[in-house]
Amino acid sequence: MQEIPTKAQILQWIADNPGLSAKRDIAKAFGIKGAARIDLKRLLRELEDEGAVTKKARTYRDPDTLPPVTLLTALPPDGQGDIFLRPMEWQGAAEDAPRILFLPKKGDPALGPGDRVLARLSKVDLDDYQYEARLIRRLGSNPIKILGIFRTSAEGGRIVPIDKGADKDWIVGRDDTLDARDGELVEAEQHGPKRMGLPRARIVARLGDPMGPKAVSLIAIHQHGIPDRFPDPVLAEAEAAKPAPMDAREDLRDLPLVTIDPSDARDHDDAVFAEPDTDSHNPGGHIVWVAIADVAHYVRPGSALDREARKRGNSTYFPDRVVPMLPDVLSGDLCSLHEGVDRPCLAVRLKLDAEGNKISHRFLRGMMRSAASLTYEEVQQAHDGHPSPRTAPLIPRIIAPLYAAYQAATKARHLRQPLDLDLPERKIILSDEGKVVSVAFRERFDAHRLIEEFMILANVAAAEELTRLKRPLLFRVHEEPSPEKLDALREVAEASGFTLAKGQVLKTAHLNRLLAQAQGTEFDELMNITTLRSMTQAYYHPQNFGHFGLSLRSYAHFTSPIRRYADLIVHRALIAGHGWGKDGLSAQDIEALDETAKLISDAERRSMTAERDTNDRYLAAYLSDRVGSEFTGRISGVQRFGLFVKLDETGADGLIPIREVGREFFHYDEATQTLMGADTGLTLGIGQRVTVRLAEAIPVTGGLTLELLSLDGAALPRSPRAGKKGRFAPRKPGATAARDAKLKRKVIRKRR
């Protein structure tokens, strides 16, 4: 019988012979013939499934190495003027890619940022870079992309970028307009050589009315580079997926687990069930089951689905659409815990005592069948004594025990004292045509809090379980505020008549006492906003630094693998730790945990920014018909250049430029976040009540410009420099910034 090489031997051969990595080359090297080739094929397929090699054009290679000849893109010169190249076919995140130094020889063309080249690589063992590249030929450049509004002219037109930070238009030649119409949203790319003056572009896509249905979120998707189209290999893998078999799973199909979600939810990745604990050693205790969709069964390490999910990091949610982390065939079907359908899951059985403390937990890989897909509203109504024919039969066995377990869990939560901020969330309601109909507060029920509390318990259990198993994972980390931010919070609190103890280890209980002091007073919202601003941003990390906001020593994300890659990593870690299958955390997953943590933390921030920008644009469109109207609000931010105000009615944020506040000089105090007038002593700070006039609303950028009319219900003091007629003449509704500036200059000249 022929001796088959081990996986390690195969990987070593591929690494040593990157130019001879076809299956026949490997077979020849190890003397494998006849029927033994079947075993070799099986080993190669296993290595591919594990992500240890990638297959392309009948050849295999280590995904962490590059072929001898490859396509590369030139990066901008570094501080020493060296040109580094990025591999175009790199499957992982950009920060994972090896550094490649370009070594030009005499006669090679100079490379600029974005130039694409075919080059021969030589591997080197250096700290600063891993490859040296010699040019074979230059292929062209990857042009800069622009998203903006097209304005026609006799020579063709111009593109006005939608990015608030853009400071110049782009010229479009007559032959490069793609027949775009004036006012259309377009995507363009840099075209032609760089010359003095405005840059030139050619339109590559017409996206229609910038305020048309679904165009608002499309702007954010393009602007922030959120991947919204799945590559063909990813879709092919998803389409080929089949329902998971029972295999060695535990059968949970008789357990009446239910999903509880918003009424417009498309996917259901968590289900719950609770019942009294019959153990005589735990009187008054509860058993809580939390079952989560088994995404790991479908998204295997190193697969096209896995690479795309890691790149996206999470799903991104807009008022009119969702950009999912996984294709809909998985997120909306095979992974989703639909009512009455068998679905694979990872579940945890939590044992709580009568005071809501977790006594123990047990994880398992199972098969479940949701007893009902419920909404928060109908569950709450049933609990409040107004059940529907659909929920009435569920009260004794399902709904009542869930609330009983939740009431116990709130006792433990109260003792733990997580940060208790009260910041109402607003929801933008759209018509079928994509226009904003209204802006309403999202209702918060105990049903919401019930699910949140059980998800937190499951996440804690996952972190503790993997720590016990000594398995690597990604923790959800939230560090305590910096001393500087705490000092700023303390100053705002003292100025408002409250106290925040100093000279002791900060706990969330101290912040909750501060919030309790302000509750019901005129400073209630101020203290909630200021406390929120003092917090650090949560992120993912392989090391455990605790979760300050939740007042937890150990926390990980386990409950949403359909929409968060971090949860998928935790699932794989549990699968590997318990030996539940070959789809657990791979060696490559473990090696890349630091890079993955940074990648998905950045992706989370990218999504949050895109979601916020989209809401800003929708709100600006909603308010554009009310330019000139007066609104009440609170100062939510202070900068040298002006004041940010959150309007009461819509929650929209607008800017009062410093020039609109008064004709005196204003001193900016970064520590206290205040502006103080040099002449009047007028002090402006976060949380103060204001009345403003809407001067300008720009839906394309989401910008709102406001005029300050009164502060804390009183008229603004007049600067001695303003003269008898007061400050500036009021802005005419709808006036442009240019007309406004011209009007101000005229007023100033007259007063002088």
From TrEMBL:
Residues 628-709 form the S1 motif domain. CDD domains: S1_RNase_R (cd04471). It is an enzyme of class 3 (hydrolase). It catalyses: Exonucleolytic cleavage in the 3'- to 5'-direction to yield nucleoside 5'-phosphates. 3'-5' exoribonuclease that releases 5'-nucleoside monophosphates and is involved in maturation of structured RNAs. Belongs to the RNR ribonuclease family. RNase R subfamily. This is Ribonuclease R. The gene is rnr.
